[in-house]
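Methods — Computational structure assignment.
A single polypeptide chain was analysed. Its primary sequence is given first, followed by the predicted tertiary structure written as structure tokens.
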Amino acid sequence: MTNEPEEPKDLVARTAGGVSAATLGLVGTLLFGPIGALVAGATSPLLTDGAKALERVIRRRLGRTQEAVDAAAKFANRSFEELIEIASEDDRRLEIVGRAVQAAALSSDSATICALGRALATGVLATDDAKVDESLRIVSTLASLDPIDVKVLERMHTSGGTWHILRTDDNSHHHAIAEEFPEAESVIDHVVARLSQQGLITRPDAGGLAWDGIPWVVTDFGRLCIETLRSAGAAAEGDSP
């Protein structure tokens, strides 16, 4: 007798402790807009009327969201249902949830997804308004970064010191970003601009984005984001069999 392949479990079935229909609808709306409450359920007519390609996209995004949900619940030692209930009382906390699940759905990096979940839990449970704002900034920033942005920031943070985009005779004692990432040389200006605009790197003695001889350094906020990613990555590795 041939066993039928097991259908992927939906967000309700996979969330520790269960998630109510109302919570699932809210998460679906945050992920997919007005049709979210419809497409978030595995029995949705939209998913059973032959829209297999759309179903795969939705399931893939929900799977990534589930990773963030699990990370948030584990870090907070509460069910995701409880976190949603707390967040629903405050628009800023609800915004953290919305941005985190949207970013997780679109991310392909497990450490980033886990970091989004941890930042979600931290922000929702924070009693200090400054901590809520910090978590919202971390979530928003991680959501805006591409993998190459994270790699560059990680390398700059790990190696320390000061960095130029290109190596010249005048800055031979500094690190050169383009030398570290030759495969990304064509987009390195854009990477540096994005990291700077997000407040992750800065040029202490210069304003704006003029590419002169003044080197770049990682900011305190940049270090905070990298440490958040590292902590999340270590937690994810610890969960691996």
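Note: The chain has a mean pLDDT of 77.
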